[in-house]
Amino acid sequence: MSKLSDEFLDIVKQMLVAENMDVSGFAANACREGGNNLVFDIDLQTRHLLAKKYYRSPQDARDRLGAEWTFIAYARALGLNDVPAAITCDEAQGIGLYEFIDGRKLARDEVKLSHVEAAARFFLALNGAQRFEGGKNLPVASEACFSFAAHIDLIERRLARLQTINATDDLSHEAVTLTADLIGRWHEIRAAIEQQAGRLQFGLHDELPESNRCLSPSDFGFHNALVKSDGQVIFIDFEYSGWDDPAKMAADFFCQPQVPVPMEHFELFLDQTMAFSPAADEMKERSRILLPAQKVKWACIMLNDFLPDAARRRQFANPLADVMARKRSQLDKTAAALRSLNL
To answer: How far apart, in whole angstroms, are the C-alpha atoms of residue 75 and residue 216?
Structure first.
């Protein structure tokens, strides 16, 4: 293990002792699937935990620990057992300890209607009338947008960052080419959004009323879920969570590339999840209009590995990762996303 991992695990032991837990049988194994944070499976013989050290950077001021911790506290206060229990945390060190979930991730071709409906139920449980009081201390979600103009500006900032990629090798040259293709497609999508919003009398700069905002897990999807042996779906990883536009929530659910949700379930998912809003039909139409824009956003996210800070974050989370293999994979996913935009 690296020096960083050793220091992290020493702090974890101290945290456990402070919670009066027996660490005599302490064993730790690195979890390599985390894309942003350093994550270890902690076995205490009598208890199984997950330890997470959150990524911090001067270029990324997000309070990942705070967002996840408060979101889980909110969900558990509602009586939901669809999320892991939070055990303890050290804010200064950016470390959280959680219940270990004995489950597995769904494979790419395993997502069924029953799983989608479980996700919809989870979202609705989070977004009852109690959310205004119980969630008042939760943050705004990462990259939350509450107007069409804000969504557009966010995507254009992401595209602008991708235009800074230096084509120093074959992979980065391919990333530059894909970025140019994305920008060309984005111009068409932006024009369509502006035209559709105007037709439906949605002002581009009109802010979404608070009554139609949701508490979103953010980065919501089965890449951030585990299925237990009894079939229960447990949702994990809420470091980007908070108040958001429900159209972004729905798009995140269908656009994340790791464990794709079949688009055939999109309308059903909207029917079920947008029932939280007093303007459900309007929220469904908003989601349909913004879906192509969110596909562009996710294509940009897939190319983040070619940007310096994202590369540092991946290295922090998994120092042993094959960087070039991951870049190749991200390029292939981006190309597939671009093809879907051109259909």
So the answer is: 11
Q: What is the mean pLDDT of each run of 10 residues along the chain (343 residues)?
A: 77 94 90 78 92 87 93 97 96 95 94 97 96 94 96 97 94 96 96 90 91 96 96 96 97 94 97 97 96 96 89 75 90 92 71
DSSP string computed for 76-97: HHTT--SSPPEEEEETTTTEEE
As a 3-state breakdown, the chain gives helix, strand, coil percent values, each rounded to 5, of 50, 10, 35
List the structure tokens of 34: 């985390």
Q: Are the CB atoms for 239 and 36 separated by under 8 Å?
A: yes
In the chain, count H helices and then E strands. Answer: 11, 9
For residue 144, give the nearest of 232, 217, 69, 227 by alpha carbon: 217
Which of 105, 127, 329, 134 shows the shortest CA–CA distance to 244?
127
Give the separation between CA 146 and CA 150, rounded to whole angstroms: 7
Strand blocks (E) in the chain: 27-30, 38-43, 48-53, 86-90, 95-99, 214-216, 225-227, 233-235, 242-244
Asked if residues 80 and 125 have their Cβ atoms less than 8 Å apart, the reply is yes
DSSP state of 72: H
